[in-house]
Amino acid sequence: MRISVVQMNSQNxxxxxxxxxxxxxxSAAAEERPDLVILPEYFAHLSDDPAEMHASGxxxxxxxxxxxxxxxAAELEITLHCGSIVERSNGEFFNTSIVFGPDGSEIxxxxxxxxxxxxxxNGVRYRESDQVGRGREIVTYxxxxxxxGAAICYDLRFAELFRALRDRGAEIIVLPAAFTLAxxxxxxxxxxxxxxxxxxxxxxxxxxxxxxxRGKSCWGHSMIVDPWGSIVAQASDREGHATARxxxxxxxxxxxxxxxxxxxxx
Length: 266
Known about the structure:
Shape: globular
Oligomer: single chain
Order of helices and strands: EHEHHEEEEEEEHEHEEEEEEH
CATH superfamily: Carbon-nitrogen hydrolase
Strand content: 25-35%
């Protein structure tokens, strides 16, 4: 199984972002022939203005992003994990991943559980809860016969979610993100590798990079990490994609040689 992570520099121009996302997915599919392609968090629209983010929101299914990328998944015959978009539902908003199978059907939907309400070391404040509500459900799906666990960005800091995904059979964990520059330079790689080691899964993180509206800067470094914690693919410091092949015989060997999942006491 081959996985591609797409790295973007989304702005507050939804039509341009959707066109760029499609261009990068098509590029990854043509050059790397992946089975699973992952877009970053808020790939369709990225802004720190709640009104702008809400205006970009759409219902799932039926919104323009869903229609467009459902068709794209079917055309390319891939599983397409659409990073996240602003979902509008009964007057509420959520930061939501939508996943389409190779026939274009919706196979999973995950609403981000942990919301990013922090002040970073450089003094920039973020209040994601001013824009979206909290998800409640742990989500897995099947792609290429393998179990995939879903998470988004700030979720990365909460190990209990990833243990729950592993307990539900996850062999791959997917993390779309817009990780800040201030925290990403110190914590991004460390946390991704730790989560991969703890869960003994392939961990695929697709990130935003560069400067975004209202001064937000993202770290990038989209990567795929194997069950031993080794980085097997990483994007460069610009928009693009990176691809790796998952070796599930190796994954099983890691789990057999160090069976931590059977040793939990708490």
